[in-house]
Amino acid sequence: MMESSTRNISLRTFLDFLGARAMKVIDGLGAFAIFFMLAFLKIFRHKQIREIIQQIYFIGAKSSNIVMLVGLFTGMVLGLQLFYTLAKFGAGGVLGSVVAHTLIRELGPVLTAIMITARAGSAMTAEIGILRISEQIDSLYTMRIDPLRYLISPRIAAAIISFPFLTAFFDLIGIFGGYLTGVLLLGVNDGSYFYRIHAFVDITDIRLGFIKSLIFAVLVATTCCYQGYFTHLRTDSYGAKSVSISTTSAVVISCVMILISDYIVTSLLI
Amino acid sequence: MKKYSIETVVGIFVLIGIICVAYMTLKLGKVSFSGDSYYSLYADFTSVSGLRIGNPIEIEGIEVGRVENMSIDQKRQVAVVELKIRKGINVYDDASATIKTAGLIGDKFIKIDAGGAGGVLKHGDRITETTAALDIEDLVGKYAFGDVTKKGNK
Asked: Are residues B69 and B10 located together in one domain of the fold?
């Protein structure tokens, strides 16, 4: 009798715990979606273009160096690795198409998004978080400036514009990197390298890559802004500590979401 | 050193970005805005195993078009292939079409011998002389089970 009631209580607490966690996750997802929709609709207000240009400069133009550097070395290592694998089958000639497919469909969008998260996303979270804890967002509100429109919308718009461009940089530089190692170092015929790329890369591959980069742009920008904007609502810490925790979780959540959504998008659109 | 304004840097970034995207979609993606500069010919094959829509068509080894469509004519029991060929490339009455493979395990393509006698084939005409895809498994099978030599002995 006694035993069964304690078992019931422990089952109840377990169910309570599970339900509370599930509701928290669903709450968070809903808040995330509403946050994104409100910020996205406010992109189309007037006088936004200056802010958007400022943010493209920060997210896009200043990230292009690091994205190109990473793209070059990714392409070079793909050229090296794939050549040794393909040469075992005597198919070194298809190196170009394999490198281009890997870059355009998969590595280009994913690695670009992860690099921008590391470089610009973390900065966005920290900046907005500090604006929040130093009560500057409240003072914007007092001056009747919509903080969502003034701070968040330009960042989301700039991310949506910059991500596909940076992905294109990454892809083309990566293909060039594969050319450097594959053709110049390992002696694949350069005509067959570029012929294979032209012959086997299709508009569907390129479309898949750009759809991915747009989805990553929305996810990364919204996650990073959301974490910074609501840094004062964290229950585990406050003040400067909460900014640091928000920045860490923004980067981690963005990277995890990039990889998970990458799988989902690929399986849906392949 | 002259310092560029933010607007200039963003302008350069967006311009290079657009050029890269345009290069990828137009050049690599083979999207053409040039409209309908192709004409269609038809060819009947007994088998088009391995051929896919979009595979290239070659004349003397140079790509002149793509496979546009494939369908079955059940009455005559043949596969009808629609060939999209660039305008200005003339194919004559005595032309022949062959399905070939690029390399041992490569993609299939259609090789057309343009011919030279008779009139020029127009949009919607039919190439009568065709050779179906060479089935390597069939060939290996024949060799392994002695069909080839038997024929030779006969």
From this structure: no
What sign does the CA torsion over B15, A175, A164, A207 have? positive
Domain assignment of residue B23, given as a range: 1-31
User: What backbone torsions phi and psi does residue B34 show, to the nearest 5 degrees?
Assistant: -75, 0
Q: Do A61 and B56 touch (CB under 8 A)?
A: no
Q: Are residues B21 and B42 in the same domain?
A: no
The domain tally of chain B equals 2
Quick one: which of A90, A102, A258, A87 has its CA closest to A177?
A102
Residues of A in contact with B30 (CB under 8 A): 198, 202-203
Residues in A touching B7 (Cβ below 8 Å)? 53
Angle between helices A203-229 and A240-269 (to 10 degrees): 160
Which of B10, B16, B25 lies at the smallest CB-CB distance from A57?
Answer: B10
Side by side, which strands form the sheet with B129-131?
B126-127, B38-45, B78-86, B62-73, B56-59, B108-113, B96-101, B129-131
| Reported ipTM | 0.70
| Phi, psi angles (nearest 5°) of residue A236 | -90, -10
Residue B45 parent element (H or E): strand B38-45
The number of CA neighbours under 13 Å toward the Cβ of A251 is 16
What pTM was computed for the model? 0.75
Q: How close, in Å, is residue A45 to chain B by CA atoms?
A: 20
Same domain, B95 and B79: yes
pLDDT in tens, A152-179: 999 999 999 999 999 999 999 999 999 9
Residues A79, A80, A83, A85, CA torsion sign: negative
> What is the separation of C-alpha A250 from the centre of its chain, rounded to a whole number of angstroms?
11
